[in-house]
Structures
1.
Amino acid sequence: MVLPMARILIAEDERDIRDLIEFTLKFGGHEVITARNGAEAVELAPHHKPDLILLDVRMPRMTGYEACRAIKALDGLKDTPVVFLSAKGQQNEMESGMEAGAYDYILKPFAPDHLNARVNEILAKSKTT
């Protein structure tokens, strides 16, 4: 199933990882908006109205959890799926993410094709729910 291009906001403080995610998602046919931290993501989200938001958990200025809560409180964005990207796969951290309003969790490191497949799967599910 081919999904139409989605607008995806990514927040990742490590430039190399952010660039890799951006390249991967653009290669997958998506429009990508990038943020260097959680605060920037909260600023950009209402202006770009993304279809999906990918947040790193540990970032300066505002963690992914804080950014998720702030985004979910904004009009027009509370139903936008937020997915955390994290190298930490501990159960308590994943539960914290879900409590903050996350739709799902993707663990780092990930293969680019796996990231695109998961993003497309999440977009398809979120469109039907």
2.
Amino acid sequence: MKAMMKDAVILFLITLVSGLMLGFVYDLTKEPIAAQNVAKKNAAYQTVFPDAVDFEVISDKPDLAPADVSSFVQSNGFDADIDEIASAHDASGQNIGYVITVTDHEGYGGNITFAMGIKNDGTLNGVSILSIAETAGLGMRAEEVLVPQMPGKDLTKEVTFTKSGNASGNEVDAISGATITTTAFVNGINAGRCVFNDLLLNGKGVGSNG
């Protein structure tokens, strides 16, 4: 009985110390990790909108809250969330477009998160992948194959993909052997397109849509 009590006390102490150490490590690293994530996001915004000198987060407005906008795109058939929306400004402070951060949930390896920059005329300015966990040599080639095809796409129209290798207009060439990744990526682009056309154009927002 004493031996069991002793073992229980030792186990409790080990668990307590481990918990305290984990808590200490978390407190020590959470701020640097948060700062790193912000830096990564800012770099992505600048990549998709190099002409912008400032970005103002506008998804903290009631009619553009991420949860409501995500529900909106899901009601339109997209398995995606909208994480953040920012207004891109030029040197004079004028709005020149938007950056929308999208997380599509249909990837082969899970979520694919990217920032997409859209000019006010509906032209896709660029895309920067923030997080992806697809198969090495296949879906992980999204950065290499899909992203370079995005600039210049007309988001007043749906973006589609082809397996022929001869994309034209608003088509993109799929990643060979990675149709699921390609589908998820293109669906994410179209989810962002939905937000731009239905909620941001003319400043309608979720509350006034429809």
3.
Amino acid sequence: MLVVSDTSPIINLARIGYLHLLPELFSEIIIPTAVFNEIAGPGNNEPGSDEMKTVNWVKILPAPIQSPLPQLLHDLDQGEAEAIVLALDIKADYILMDETLGRQIALTYHLQPLGLLGILVLAKQKGLVGAVAPLMDKLRSDANFFIDIRLYQYIKTLAKE
């Protein structure tokens, strides 16, 4: 499965020690240059930055020049906008993205957004994690990742917990 990732899923999986799930779930992981720079570029040292600089399971590509990028930059940050246009260009199976507006815009381009919590549910379905609820708790405590209580319960239901 070919995916393009925005910054948030990478950083937050790294914060809780589960970045290794990405290459276990997806055959190809692409990030646009802007996402790499947000994580590990000059002056940035986010969780996951060492991995983004050294692993062989992520490919960094520039966003296409002929694209809706300038229009997207009116509403989204550089990383989100580049992730959308790159996912369109390479016909990604999923775009890994957590931000609500970015996901809504991705849907208008007929992309399939998959957020961090969806990644965890998929990991459980594939037997890569035993339970999702403790990981959501870890996201809340270690990454200060907001999860609405209704969404928390819904994800537990999806994960059959």
